[in-house]
Design goal:
single chain; 146 residues; mainly alpha; elongated
Length: 146
């Protein structure tokens, strides 16, 4: 049988072999941090840690995760290839359609500017069918009608 004896706090020695809960947690944490485990933990590579997971994760879950990762990789690759092909089609189409149009528009502006400079330099009236303040191709009012 065990005999229980009550101890007064005044009689309690702080240097005794018994510790409080907070002191013991602090000591355990210091022992854990100061141990060689930390050195081993820091020396362990990511590949070694993943290899250790092989022992922890069951075979069925590993196969399921492998299938999911494989499918995600397949669809990611498929999506990237599709986006690349669509980008190629749209950019080449834009170059084939828009670039010649831009070049021709620029050429037309240069030609109109050259004609206006020639007419201004010679002091001539604008060509027939074009009023002095009208754009080319716009027909002015009929003669005799005001």
């Amino acid at each position: 049988m065990v005999k229980l004896v009550e101890i007064d706090e005044a009689e309690y020695d702080s240097d005794s072999q018994y510790t409080t809960d907070s002191e013991s947690e602090h000591d355990i944490h210091d022992d854990y941090v100061d141990s060689d485990f930390e050195d081993d933990y820091m020396d362990e590579s990511l590949l070694e840690r993943l290899a250790a997971l092989k022992d922890i994760v069951p075979v069925e879950q590993r196969h399921a995760l492998s299938k999911v990762a494989s499918r995600v990789g397949y669809w990611g690759d498929f999506g990237m290839r599709l986006v690349g092909k669509l980008a190629w089609v749209f950019t080449t189409s834009a170059f084939l359609v828009v670039l010649p149009l831009a070049i021709e528009t620029d050429r037309e502006k240069m030609m109109m500017q050259w004609e206006s400079e020639q007419n201004g330099a010679q002091g001539q009236a604008p060509p027939p069918g074009m009023a002095p303040n009208m754009a080319p191709g716009v027909v002015g009012p009929a003669p005799g009608i005001v």
